[in-house]
């Protein structure tokens, strides 16, 4: 059974996946409005609301009824500057965004996590991703979709050297470990948003690639 989202809240619209998803949403005639807070202004569109500023400060100011929320936030420890700063963005801000989306009436949250997310992971990055998943599940969403992509492929405004070097190699890996194009991930998220369901669904990278074809 499918449900067409009408009013969308999107975090991370200027990121690699978020920009593709925003383009997808604004080209869907069934989408009434996209509320996309960003640090830098987006191109104007008649169905786009774009509050500009730091997301943490903007969250309390967001208003209006929301049907579906997408969270495409994410950084690296290098970009954040420290593990603490990374945790503040990739955990605290995501959880706060999700809570605000619920307060605005969103029934379905779709969030980008990571391959290997696990609260017991030995690796800081995947451990934080596991903690995010745990804390979002604890919010008891009517419908929560967690996407676990592998290495993201695509051209960023601010290139990440590690992604540029590893990208071609991940294309040779099997199954869920193979790299996934950010545009395909965005398309997969949109298709998942159209599915009406209940509870938590975790979607691994190989399934995301199929959905994004």
Name some characteristics of this structure.
alpha/beta, seven-stranded parallel beta sheet, globular, Rossmann fold, two-stranded parallel ribbon, 39% helix
Structure explained in plain terms:
- The structure is a single chain.
- Helix 5 links the parallel strand 5 and strand 6.
- The protein has one domain: 3-Layer(aba) Sandwich (Rossmann fold).
- Helix 4 runs parallel beside helix 5 and helix 7 packs across helix 8.
- With 213 residues, the chain is α/β, with parallel strands linked by helices.
Write the layout of secondary structure elements.
Elements: E1 7-11, H1 16-26, E2 33-35, E3 48-49, H2 55-58, E4 68-71, H3 77-80, H4 83-103, E5 108-112, H5 124-138, E6 143-148, E7 152-153, H6 161-170, E8 180-181, H7 182-193, E9 199-204, H8 205-211
Helix pairs in contact: 1-7, 4-5, 7-8
